[in-house]
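Anyone? Bumping this.
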Amino acid sequence: MKLSFKLSPSFSLSMALLAGLASAPAFTQTAPAAVPAVSMSDKSAFIADLLGKMTLDEKVGQLRLISIGPEMPIAQLADEIAAGRIGGTFNSVNRPHNRQLQDAATQRSRMKIPMFFAFDVIHGHRTTFPIGLGLASSWDMDVVTSMARTAAKEASADAADMTFAPMVDISRDPRWGRTSEGFGEDPYLVSEIAKTVVRGFQGKLPIGPNNVMAAVKHFALYGAVEGGRDYNTVDMSPMRMYQDYLPPYRAAIDAGAGGVMVALNSINGVPATSNTWLMQDLLRKDWGFKGVAVSDHGAIVELTRHGVAKDEREAAKLAIKTGIDMSMADSVYLKELPGLVKSGEVSMTEIDNAVREVLGAKYDMGLFQNPYVRIGVAADDPPDLKADSRLSRPAARDAARKSVVLLENRNNTLPLSKTAKVALVGPLADAPIDMLGSWSAAGDYKASVTLRTGLVNAIGKNLIYARGANLTNDEEIVKYLNYLNWDSPEVTQDKRAPAAMIAEAVKAARRADVVVVAVGESRGMSHESSSRTSLDLPQSQRALITAMKATGKPIVLVLMNGRPLALQREQKEADAILETWYTGIEGGNAIADVLFGDYNPAGKLPISFPRSVGQIPIYYNHPRLGRPFTPGKPGNYTSQYFEEPNGALYPFGYGISYTDFNVSDVTLSSATMARGAKVEASVTVKNTGQRGGETVVQLYIRDVAASVVRPVKELKDFRKIMLKPGEEKVVRFTVDEEKLKFFNAQLQRVAEPGTFTVQIGLDSEAVKEKNFDLQ
Ligand code: NOJ
């Protein structure tokens, strides 16, 4: 029997209320909606009823997630949908297109099951916010919420129902280009952000009309690809997995993420896409995940290349049995599953399990109640998708200012005076595409305020600009970056000889009081499949910095990059260094706010900066060692590198300010903690400088002796505070048993009795300590 969609007004209203859609636009499509045999308010009965009426082909069709784009013209897509051969699409945020496709589903397909539309909304939608690393540098959950809410409102207004985000892969290897997309190296900080983003995107299920469903990715451990080389294999001990890499995915799921995107890599010899331990034992049974699992792009077919499936048929069989509900950007399920069911190799129950999750997600997105809930009506379609009036510039500027990290500031070079003559040089000084950062899918570079524009806005004629250098002089690299071809061309080369460009920059510097040098990476250098063997600035940019230094003028480096760079040389040359990551469309204004002191920077690094690429992996929460290196002591027979100083150049949690803060000794409410009880740890933080400013007070804990090797310290809490000059505040942290727990050798989460060291400071290294005992 067909579902004929016809809603009575009261039914429609009660469904709208159910889905939190009371304020949704009225369902004005001529499209017929369902008169289900069972009440739509009972999700599982409703879906079971639907499943019972579907043919095998229709079920398999629901498992196909296809990209709108060159893969298939829209008219053909509509026909495929009408034939019941597609369940959802991604890559289109065009309301008329999506409406046409939804019409095909709700009017022309036999079952009239609505489509869903997904999109990569990673760090903003039309309004591009700072990249993940930048958002994480704010250590400010209001900033993260502002990004997620703004993005969800904009994406849903563009007919997106689901986003493939948050991307919460822990990364300890900055060679990996996708480090830029994530939130850094720390399980606690990334988990806090993961929860916040999920709540901001979707809120509770079923989601409302101004929300998008969050599909957390890439499950799992994608950030640990060997050597930082994208798509490489992952080999990891269970303890490290549970302790360090899995918590952020879990946090997103516990916050209610409706979807999971499965990683492209293998884990300990089994690709995630065919890993039943990962997808069933861990995700579904242990964690209780009830949503939809989508493959990554082409990942099911790639099982043949991983060498665990001899052909696509076997790949489809493995994936469906593993619990991959939707196959992304291929037709492998469509082609293979019907035959596999007929031959008895795949059971109808296995198909039904997957279809149930897809329909469940559609239900949770409110699409059965109103398939056009985010598509709206044609009369309301925006005439210009990219109109500036659709952007949230103040929110983007605020987030960008808060994402900037001050790494160096010798002789109080910063903030600059607005009456100073400023020379601005460097290949990233006027780079609107790069301001957006990687994965800014709906971002428009024409909306970017570059640093040059931001400085002109701030000081007008006091700015002198010269490009000074190309991003790189290596044409092979330029060719690689332009192959990506999102915005053509990604990287534009100035045709002049390097020496001529530098000469022009030197001339500009000589006329100025201070030189701001905008250097780093183009966004394509910190992107999917853009792994690097070196973390150095390209030679062309190094030469520019050296030439600027030779002028004797104070040098301010403004870094734009998507991963920690190796900055030993630059640290010596520059008077001030500002890590700005990729700041988004308001970046130029936001960086100007910081340079001229209209905003006092408070960002803290969410990832360690190595001295050189050879130190990788380097991360602050390293396991304890039998022969640790002790700074200031001879290194022989300790764990170290002998040819350069040890430890990070800039540690996790680091970032300075235009003012100074003093942290008192730690006070504990008790030297012992009974089981189930709490200890309060506090410090007094005082602003001892001349300006008001924010800082992030960080709580770390070390387990002094445990049944397994534990990290030297682990972040357990943090607080961002604002202090006026001379002001002091007591910052209190509650330490309970939860904060002392870890996964032991049997992978049980336990807090073992014994001594713990509480460490509090403004970065992960400069901390004050005090011990207490858990009884
Ligand atoms: C491949 C990427 O790995 C993933 O992060 C993204 O969501 C999909 N493509 C869809 O664009």
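Late reply, but here is one note on the structure posted above: Residues 232 and 327 are 21 Å apart (CA to CA).
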